[in-house]
Amino acid sequence: RTANQNFVSFKNLIQNIHLFFKSLTRDPPFVLDVNLGAISRLESVAVQSHGENTQGLEIVCKDLRNPRFAYKKEGQSNLEVFETLSKYAFPLSHNLPLFAFKYRETFPEDGWKIYDPVAEYKRQGLPNESWIISKVNSSYELCETYPALLVLPSNVTEDELKRVAAFRAKRRLPVLSWIHPESQAAIVRCGQPQVGPSDRRCREDERYLQTILDANAQSHKLCIFDARQSTVADTNKAKDGGYENESLYINVELNFLEIPNIHVMRESLRKLKEVVYPAIDQQRWFSSVDSTHWLEYIRLLLAGAVRIADRLESGKTSVVVHCSDGWDRTAQLTSLAMLMLDAHYRSLRGFQVLLEKEWLSFGHRFASRVGHGDGNHANSERSPLFVQFIDCVWQMTRQFPSAFEFNELFLITVLDHLYSCLFGTFLYNSEQERVSKEVYSKTVSLWSYVNSQLEEFTNPLYVNYEHHVLYPVASLRHLELWVSYYVRWNPRMRPQVPVHQSLKELLVLKSELQKRVDELKRDAASSHSLSSSSEHEGMPMQTTV
């Protein structure tokens, strides 16, 4: 916690989307910059500073920091300070627009165009004889949380689709998300079947999964991965949820990945925050981190994604992935499996496409999980699912340092703007909501900003392993806490030269060396050509007509 801080002038400190605090008592002055979108809650506190009681403010942030400030009045009451800050930190709670709708920065590239679903599915070889790109959800009537374009089995009628949708949670029927270029094994995602306590069945759903199995001639089995703990899936039956009955779904194998729910993950990150901020207990560091179970949950996600990827790659088997509603753990697992299977998604632009497709278009509830502009910090819907996914990606970059085109700064930048509300990318809960709020025309995409300075986010060690499948080791011995992200705000952390700056210099050096290699190759080729000409000079030439 940063104490003994004084406001210079509160009005000058709130500038658009940032709040600046400047110390008057330190030399050189200490300045802290807090993004208003990252604020989870505000608390007015009494603080003792220099032996006297003064007013203070504690700012609880979503990015694992809790700065606390003492300040002198200087013409403004504590209530005025609190209310002004609250107004800009939680605009939706004050009937104000999110800042993204006021941000008017222009960039050379329109980031909203980075993801074209038709182009992405074409890259995968779709449509084909078994799968079509359908506009059946163009008005979001079949499923309001799915994208307008869906890849569906080619021989299923619209009436059958509606019956299958009605049987699945939130009408999230099974749809293709990725297909293997050789085996045609597919990753299919959906919501849980609504079998309920009486074990209802839906013959259309059973035939639909059989159709998905038949689309892959390489395998005679369909593998379902239910992300939930099996005990929880059983409990969900009482709430009209449930899971597939293997006796009714022929040639289907059901696997539970035993991953806890959003509430467990929220509590785990809360515990981690207590470990890393404001003080670190050096003697109990490892046991403290272990007690949060954060790395254990990272391990479960990576292990589940490895199982999915291996079934497709080695087993040539199509997989169906779901959790309860199919927008939280499902998105984590499908996108991680695709990162392992498809090198395109490991490029800078390819990763942007992956996020747009698996997380944004398929309706991960960013607004509910993050709480953009909403002062209701106690909302039980909030959970760090996307942070967890990015952490898993970071773990993969540690195990395969040359397999990803993007660097650590890119991942941290994505997470910072998950909260910032500066760009429209992560706003709202679904594609339909973003369309209705005119996000694509009235806000700027995060990718416009990122792609305007790709050199900042490029990994100089990157090698395009185009046909390599990555299988990270999902063992706690090979996982580590992402200190550069989780511990960066600890006041006792020594400022260091940013790693990305050194990597940027390496990138320049790599480019210069590559140019030199190309020059030497041209010189060698030229010398060889001249040598060959000299040898053949004066020799007769024969031409065949």
Total helical segments? 19
Secondary-structure-based class equals alpha/beta
Give the distance, in angstroms, between the N- and C-terminal Cα atoms. 88 Å
Overall number of domains: 2
The total of beta strands comes to: 13
CA-based gyration radius? 27 Å
Spatial arrangement of strands, main beta sheet? 9-10-13-11-12
Shape: globular
Proportion of residues in helical segments: 25-40%
The residue ranges in which pLDDT falls below 50 over 5 or more consecutive positions are 1-12, 539-545
Taking all residues together, what is the mean pLDDT?
Answer: 90
Residue fraction in strands: 5-15%
Biggest sheet details: 5 strands, mixed
Domain Myotubularin phosphatase: 111-486
Main location: cytoplasm
InterPro entries: Myotubularin (IPR030564), Myotubularin-like_Pase_dom (IPR010569), PH-like_dom_sf (IPR011993), Prot-tyrosine_phosphatase-like (IPR029021), Tyr_Pase_AS (IPR016130), Tyr_Pase_cat (IPR003595), Tyr_Pase_dom (IPR000387)
Binding site for substrate: 236-239, 261-262, 323-329
Sequence-ordered SSE layout with sheet pairings:
Blueprint: H1 10-13, E1 14-15, E2 18-22, E3 31-35, E4 39-49, E5 52-61, E6 68-71, H2 78-89, H3 117-123, E7 131-134, E8 150-153, H4 158-167, E9 175-179, E10 186-189, H5 203-214, E11 222-226, H6 230-236, E12 252-256, H7 262-276, H8 285-292, H9 294-313, E13 319-322, H10 329-341, H11 348-361, H12 366-370, H13 385-399, H14 408-420, H15 431-436, H16 439-442, H17 446-450, H18 483-486, H19 499-536
Parallel strand pairs: 10-13, 11-12, 11-13
Antiparallel strand pairs: 1-2, 2-3, 4-5, 5-6, 7-8, 9-10
